[in-house]
UniProtKB/TrEMBL annotation:
Belongs to the PRORSD1 family. It comes from Ruminiclostridium cellobioparum subsp. termitidis CT1112. It holds the Pfam family tRNA_edit. Residues 43-167 form the YbaK/aminoacyl-tRNA synthetase-associated domain. This is YbaK/aminoacyl-tRNA synthetase-associated domain-containing protein. InterPro entries: ProX/PRXD1 (IPR040285), YbaK/aa-tRNA-synt-asso_dom_sf (IPR036754), YbaK/aa-tRNA-synth-assoc-dom (IPR007214).
Length: 183
């Protein structure tokens, strides 16, 4: 048995929210409101893509790598969503979006704009970016999968959501239009 997953039960729908953070329960509430179905696996804290391999196997998905980035002046912020097995090439992404060299943004900005902490970065955090301070960048390879894997704004659960629902229903609700990149 893994040290990350102790109960291999796959759930559908919202859990009993007793003891869960509001940012997680708010995610489930929004997905329910938007009519987005999902599969959920609860697990111990995952802090990296490497920690997610058993979660991926059980949910039969690839958990996406979500990177919170900024330009060199720290005036523009981006959420880059890419396959977990790809390497981040800052020069290539910066060139494709016409930005100065991108680097990892500070945790304070992540919490301020997305209400998430390092290790829990997720496209679902865009629901907290009402001012549209964060640009969304999606690697084109994400579009090839029927399902999308991500955290519900905390890294103690993982979700399997239809990619189309995420791109059409969720992003339509948040008002974020993705820019597509190739890594």
């Amino acid at each position: 048995m893994s040290n990350i997953v102790t109960d291999t039960t796959i759930y559908t729908g919202k859990p009993d929210c007793t003891g869960r953070l509001q940012k997680e329960t708010g995610t489930y509430d929004l997905l329910e409101k938007l009519g987005i179905e999902y599969f959920r696996l609860d697990h111990k804290e995952t802090n990296s893509i490497d920690d997610c391999h058993e979660v991926e196997r059980l949910l039969e998905i690839e958990i996406c790598k979500n990177l919170f980035l900024c330009n060199s002046a720290q005036t523009r912020f981006y959420l880059l969503v890419m396959p977990g097995d790809k390497k981040f090439d800052t020069k290539a992404v910066s060139r494709q979006i016409g930005s100065t060299r991108l680097s990892f943004a500070h945790a304070e900005h992540m919490e301020r704009y997305l209400n998430i902490t390092p290790g829990s970065v997720s496209i679902l955090g865009l629901m907290n970016d009402g001012e549209k301070k964060v640009g969304l960048l999606i690697d084109r390879d994400i579009l090839k999968s029927e399902y999308f894997g991500c955290h519900p704004c905390v890294n103690t659960s993982s979700l399997k959501i239809k990619t189309n629902d995420l791109l059409t229903k969720f992003l339509a609700y948040t008002g974020h239009s993705p820019s597509y990149v190739e890594l």
